[in-house]
Amino acid sequence: MAKEYLGEFEELVLTLVAALQEDAYGAAIAEEIETRMKRDVNLSAVHVTLYRLEDKGFLKSSLGGGTNERGGRRKRIYTITNAGLAMLKAMKEARVDLWKLVPQLKIG
Question: What's this model's pTM, rounded to 2 decimal places?
Answer without folding.
Answer: 0.85
